[in-house]
Amino acid sequence: MKKALALSSLALALPLVSFAAINNLSDAGSFVINTINNVIVPVLFAVAFIVFLWGAFQTFIIGATKEETKEHGKNLMLWGLIGFFVMVSVWGLVNILTGTISFGNNTGITGGTPKAGVQIGQ
After folding, report:
1. pTM of the prediction?
2. Helix (H, G, I), strand (E, B) or coil at 96
3. pLDDT tens-digit profile of 11-70?
4. Which letter does DSSP use for residue 102 in this model?
5. Please, what is the Cα angle at 24 between 19 and 28, to 5 degrees?
6. What is the 3-state secondary structure (H, E, C) of the chain?
7. Which among 10, 15, 66, 90 is placed 20 to 30 Å from 108, CA to CA?
8. CB–CB of 84/51 below 8 Å?
9. For residues 58 and 76, is the Cβ–Cβ distance under 8 A?
10. Which residues contact 58 (CB under 8 A, 6 or more apart)?
11. Minimal CA–CA distance to 70: which of 82, 57, 79?
C-alpha cells in the first residue's frame, strides 16, 4: 500500500517538475518557494482542518456515550488547533521578516511616509 501511495504521489508530482523550466539557481529557488507556498502549505492547513473536524466528529457524534472516545476526540481537536496556531504564527513571522528586510523586493527602499489609503479632508 505504501509503495502504491508513493508511486501515485510521484506520478501526480511529475508535471510540476517537467513544467518547472529551471534555468539557473534563482529559478530553482523560486520553484522551491512557490511549491512550498502553493502546494505544501495548503495541504498542511487542510490536514490540520481534517484533524480538527475528525476530533469534533469523534467528540460529539461517536463519543456521545463513550467517555474514552470523547476524550480522544477532544485531544484531536486540541492538536488540530495547535497546528493551525503554529502554522499561522510562523506564516506571520515570515511575513514580518520579509516585509522588514524587503526580501524579494528588487526595486530598493521606498521612502516617504506610510499611507493609509483613505483620503481625509479633500
Report:
1. 0.58
2. helix
3. 566 555 555 566 777 777 777 777 877 888 888 889 999 999 999 998 888 877 888 888
4. T
5. 55
6. CHHHHHHHHHHHHHHHHHCCCCCCHHHHHHHHHHHHHHHHHHHHHHHHHHHHHHHHHHHHCHHHCCHHHHHHHHHHHHHHHHHHHHHHHHHHHHHHHHHHHCCCCCCCCCCCCCCCCCCCCC
7. 90
8. no
9. yes
10. 69, 70, 72, 73, 76
11. 57
User: Is the backbone of residue 69 left (phi > 0), alpha (psi -120 to 50) or beta?
Assistant: alpha
Q: What's the one-letter identity of residue 65? A: T
**Closest listed residue to residue 58, CA positions, set 69, 67, 46:** 69
Quick one: cell of 38? Answer: 502553493
User: Could you give the CA distance from residue 78 to residue 94 in angstroms, rounded to a whole number?
Assistant: 24
